[in-house]
Amino acid sequence: MSDLESNGSDRTRRRGTMLLRSGNLILAVLATLAPMAHVLELPNKLALDGPLWLAVQQHLYRGWGPILGGPIEVAAFASTVALLVMRRRHRRTARLTSVAAIAYAGMIVTFFVFNDPVNAALSTWAPTSLPPDWQRYRMQWEAGHALAALLSVIALVAVLRAWLIERDREMAG
């Protein structure tokens, strides 16, 4: 392979790495938005009575998870794992990327443990048929989103810190 071909492939590889890192950072920001919105809504949603809370759940959030939230979280996790493979030789950034990957995995598990069972139950309810323990379901749903928000912030900070370390390393060398 000639030096010209080698330089071209190095440049292409660096460009691909930069795109993956930038895309991962964008996904990290996007994966934080919805859970943080839920946390910010929490005080007002806890004040709603049962029928109004159910109406909000059944109408306002329809389609958000499968169409937007879930795919973004999965893409953030996948791009973080790809970066982890690429960063495996760089201890500091690999450690930060591992933290982010674990946080994204935790977000996905949190959805299936806390939120999905509530969503399934809510789909069968009507305002006149709320179960007596509907508030327990509400707290489970809100706790799931609060935990996801915490995990998303941890992941975002880790992704951003790794991105800054790599940027500084590239600028210095």
Word description of this protein:
There is one protein chain. The chain is mainly alpha-helical and 173 residues long. The chain has helices at residues 3-46, 50-60, 64-86, 91-122, 134-172. It contains five helices and no strands. 86% of the residues lie in helices and 0% in strands. The two termini are 25 Å apart.
List keywords for this structure.
0% strand, single chain, 173 residues, mainly alpha, 5 helices
- Oligomeric organization of the protein chains: single chain
- Apparent shape: elongated
Distance between the termini: 25 Å
Proportion in helices? over 70%
Rg (CA only): 20 Å
Give the total of beta strands.
0
The assigned structural class equals mainly alpha
Biggest beta-sheet profile: none
Strand content: under 5%
Low-confidence stretches: none
- Succession of helices and strands: HHHHH
Q: Give the domain tally.
A: 1
Mean pLDDT: 91
Total of DSSP H or I helical runs spanning 4+ residues? 5
Summarize the structure.
This protein is mainly α and about 170 residues long.
Topology:
Blueprint: H1 3-46, H2 50-60, H3 64-86, H4 91-122, H5 134-172
